[in-house]
Amino acid sequence: MGTPQLPNGEADLSFVKYAAQEIGRAMNSYKVICVKSTVPVGTNDKIAEWIKACYTGRFDLASLPEFLREGSAIHDTLHPDRVVIGANSESAIELLTRTDSFIQSHSPGYLCYIGLNLFTNVRDLINKGNFCGQKCIRSFLRAGIGYGGSCFPKDTKALIQIAGNIEYDFKLLKSVVEVNNSQYSKIVEKLQQALGNLAGRTVGVWGLAFKPDTDDVRESPALQIIKALIKLGVKLNLYDPVAMNNFRRIYDHPSMTWCDSALQAAENCDAVCLLTEWREFVEVDLASIKSAMSGVVLIDGRNTILAEKARTLGFSYYPIGRPALQSQSNIPECV
Ligand SMILES: NC(=O)c1ccc[n+]([C@@H]2O[C@H](COP(=O)([O-])OP(=O)(O)OC[C@H]3O[C@@H](n4cnc5c(N)ncnc54)[C@H](O)[C@@H]3O)[C@@H](O)[C@H]2O)c1
């Protein structure tokens, strides 16, 4: 069940508590209870207390953290590339290892999980390249406008909070959050460098979800970017294959036009910004897009479009973390 973030950065454990009490009331013999929600270190002790208040028999608790990705949850559940178990009881570990091939960890599973998420967050920002063998982590090794969604931002802030509780100043993780929070401004800066004053300009936005293959817009970088552009007087044409309704529920504005396709969102635009790397955008017919636009600026917030192809077609192409490719020599270069 969900463990949303409280205003102070801590995880809200009320759903977990309620479920633990329900489990306690329902138990009638030895059981191993696996915690898959993302919870702070030490939560299993609390869960044990909540269960014990309702059930006096023997039971064991194990951490079995979730590594699935939104958009491919069923595949990732059936074909995990790693499983972490955190448990003190040999019988619980034996029971859990009997059914699968596991990477065992006798340290608390959650710490191991959070460590992997932290690693992923750092990689997401610095784009070190393709040196890691695991498919799940490798898929995050790209520079871009930053992470979002319901898990990474929440887990990262929760770990900073946990570190604070033991008076540890987690500078690395704080910097990750800080850099991620400022990453969205790259899009605004690139638009300003390409177009100058943005007031009255029309910009097409491709992608509102925090990542492809999901309609989840929670903490999506698109939200910060869109709000910043509206403040600067930009008119926006928005398109996402599935996340438009969710986005519209959290933010709408008279300067925004909701479009039915990537092509429609590009029509008569001075610039188009790709914010989510949906396959549809990666494979888009760039020649038709170019003809539909009034300008030539293409900002690729996820480095997914073939840069040379874009330049050959006459776009001024601005990726993230790499030099721009200009179709006209008088447009300033920005990284
Ligand atoms: N979404 C992800 O990709 C992902 C990945 C890894 C870990 N997690 C973690 O998994 C947890 C759940 O995330 P989510 O995205 O699935 O949340 P969610 O809000 O989509 O789903 C939570 C579900 O729990 C159910 N629930 C709440 N109380 C219950 C109870 N007492 N008994 C039975 N069901 C109950 C709710 O009805 C809901 O369907 C969170 O701690 C999250 O951090 C999520």
Helix content: 40-55%
Mean residue pLDDT: 85
Rg result: 23 Å
Structural class, from helix and strand content?
alpha/beta
Number of helices: 15
The distinct bound ligands, ions and cofactors come out as:
nicotinamide-adenine-dinucleotide
Order of strands across the main sheet = 7-6-5-8-9-10
CATH architecture of the largest domain: 3-Layer(aba) Sandwich
Kindly provide the name of the CATH class of the largest domain. Alpha Beta
CATH superfamily of the largest domain: NAD(P)-binding Rossmann-like Domain
- The dominant shape is elongated
Percent in strands: 5-15%
The number of strands is 10
Task: Please name the CATH topology of the largest domain.
Answer: Rossmann fold
The major beta sheet can be summarized as: 6 strands, parallel
**What separation lies between the terminal Cα atoms?**
41 Å
Count of folded domains = 3
Low-pLDDT parts are 101-108, 124-133, 329-335
How would the blueprint of this fold be written?
Layout (H helix, E strand, L loop, with lengths): L13 H13 L4 E5 L7 H10 L6 E5 L9 H6 L5 E2 L4 H8 L5 E2 L4 H18 L8 H4 L13 H14 L5 H13 L1 H11 L6 E5 L14 H11 L3 E5 L4 H7 L5 E3 L3 H5 L4 E4 L4 H4 L3 H7 L4 E4 L6 H6 L3 E3 L17
Helix pairs in contact: 1-2, 5-7, 5-8
This protein binds nicotinamide-adenine-dinucleotide (NAD).
The site of nicotinamide-adenine-dinucleotide (NAD) has 14 residues, from helix 1.
